[in-house]
Specification:
The chain has 373 residues and is of the alpha+beta class. 36% of the residues lie in helices and 20% in strands. Strands 10-9-8-11-12 form a five-stranded antiparallel β-sheet. A hairpin with a 4-residue loop joins strand 11 and strand 12. The longest helix has 17 residues. The radius of gyration is 21 Å and the shape is globular. The two termini are 37 Å apart.
Amino acid sequence: MKTSEKRQKGSYVPQWLKGRRVGVLMGGWSPERVISLRTGRTVLAALKRLGIAARGIDVDRTLPQRLQRHRIDIAFLALHGPGGEDGSVQGMLEVLEIPYTGSGVAASAVALHKGLTKQIFQAAGLPTPAGLVIARGNRTHPETMLGKRSLGGRAEARKASDGILDDGTVCRASLTPPQAALPRLQPEEGFGMSSRIPHPTRRWPVVVKPTMQGSALGVTIARTPAEFQRGLRRAWRLSPSALVEAYIRGTEVTVGILGDQPLPVIEIIPANPFYDYEAKYVPGKSTHVIPARLPAGVLHRVQMLALAAFRALGAKAVARVDMIVDRRMEPFLLEVNTIPGMTETSLLPEAARAIGISFDELVLKILKYSLDA
């Protein structure tokens, strides 16, 4: 390589990164290992293109020793799912005093647990489908488990979302009480949380998903009691508990958060019945529309709702917020991903690209916002 080429390659390294070695933590042992490796390798390639001293580390139980042996100064987290996105690695890095990208221990742990995330949304008065966490092994008949009450009407959700101001903050005076949108879940022996979920006037379907997995792994849309029981068993194989949610028909959308700013709203059109693992990661299995085909006012509301959810969880630097907009143009929060995918089909890089941020620039911004916060 010519000297001029070497200089050009290294010219992108900002002063605050010079002399510091970045370790890209990827892989791990969760069911999302394959996707994590793809994310990590893509990020590592970007760092090397920028001339930044970087090393990929396939995470295992010897991670602390390897971080020290390779003299890692900053950890870029490309881990997905339990064991990497749940606060455990973040806590270890805190002990080792190694700064890392993304959210801290508490926000990471809460965001990966879909039941706890829903309770945070509830407490903040943010619209989300009603739901219930059911511990592994519960054999209660679905009609008893799901109960008979309404799941909470669109009116309550509309009032809650109208309480979000233009800067993403929540105006509590304009919100309905949290329990109006989602009944408060109380501890109950044998379940961990309440054994009842308000049921949509006994109509199916409902959504069953593992509480602590991402990438739509183990998700079932149950239309009958038999499918419901199969969905629980499927979710329990991946997590100690399952989240059962009201099924909302509408447009699937996602909003990336970078720093403290929402990126353009992406509409997701899956080739499969819903945005499952295959639709997320197999090219051609979903279509993304930027910006989403929604009225301008709804797009703005969705962005502000995403920012409010990000702040409610105490997330930092980067995230992706998934939600669904129903046929009445009311948005409902589903989850917050604190380590969004960074593969060739991932949504966050696509949203950044739509406003002129290249992949390499995105990687640098994630590092900068993480270290500055």
